[in-house]
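Subject: design request, 256 residues
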């Protein structure tokens, strides 16, 4: 009888296209509490009061109390699980990652193909004139940062919005396109650190299954919204490196 880990590794080796869907659980081991857990962001900032486009348009200075905390996520460091996923991609075992996280830790770990399903605070836009900014540009602009673009000889001056997806906003077109490309022909999806209760991202594993693919779950606790083919319970930072080591060892035995 193969162990669950062996089974997951066998499928990973056999799969011609594997993708990953990640959520808050991969970042908790980098010191970022799940927004919905006790002490998390949503216990301090009611998302319906702060995290909507309507709230931003009504009172951008107030909503920047939340945005300022999102910018601080960019100081977090990737953990061994993030690095293992980047290694798996480099070894040809992973086509890409769809992440619900906005902390940029997959990219910081070296992952190349990352679809940021809920956007990113690393770039910002002016909703008044459309000018884009990098988070590094706004360090000198203060909080809340205001648009410095000149419109008809006058400075625009509107308060900038980070490119994170708020509760009343749709998934960015670019993320939808990237997700469709990754899902197309995927034979295996690794579902990591997510309870699959947030839609539409939570429905992506079922789309892989509907086209004949398999689901491997890696979570601290079983995801309520998911019925995986194999479930590996434990820490992402420990399990993911084991899976990738298993993949590399097994694949050496196969002609490439
Ligand atoms: Zn502007």
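Subject: RE: design request

Done. Sequence follows.
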């Amino acid at each position: 009888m193969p162990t669950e880990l062996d089974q997951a590794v066998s499928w990973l080796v056999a799969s011609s296209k594997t993708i990953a869907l990640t959520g808050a659980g991969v970042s908790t081991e980098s010191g970022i509490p799940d927004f919905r857990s006790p002490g998390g962001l949503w216990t301090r900032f009611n998302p319906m009061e702060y995290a909507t486009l309507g709230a931003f348009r009504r009172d951008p200075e107030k909503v920047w109390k939340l945005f300022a905390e999102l910018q601080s996520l960019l100081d977090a460091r990737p953990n061994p699980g993030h690095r293992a996923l980047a290694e798996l991609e480099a070894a040809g075992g992973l086509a890409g990652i769809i992440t619900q996280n906005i902390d940029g830790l997959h990219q910081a770990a070296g992952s190349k193909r990352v679809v940021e399903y809920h956007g990113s605070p690393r770039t910002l836009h002016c909703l008044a004139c459309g000018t884009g900014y990098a988070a590094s540009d706004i360090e000198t602009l203060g909080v809340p940062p205001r648009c410095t673009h000149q419109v008809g000889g006058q400075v625009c001056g509107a308060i900038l919005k980070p490119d994170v997806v708020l509760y009343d906003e749709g998934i960015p077109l670019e993320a939808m396109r990237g997700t469709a490309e990754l899902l197309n022909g995927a034979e295996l999806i690794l579902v990591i650190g997510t309870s699959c209760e947030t839609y539409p991202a939570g429905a992506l594993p079922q789309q892989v299954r509907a086209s004949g693919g398999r689901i491997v779950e890696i979570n601290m606790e079983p995801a309520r919204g998911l019925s995986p083919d194999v479930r590996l319970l434990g820490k992402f930072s420990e399990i993911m490196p084991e899976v990738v080591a298993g993949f590399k060892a097994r694949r050496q035995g196969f002609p490439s």
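The CA atoms of residues 131 and 161 lie 11 Å apart.
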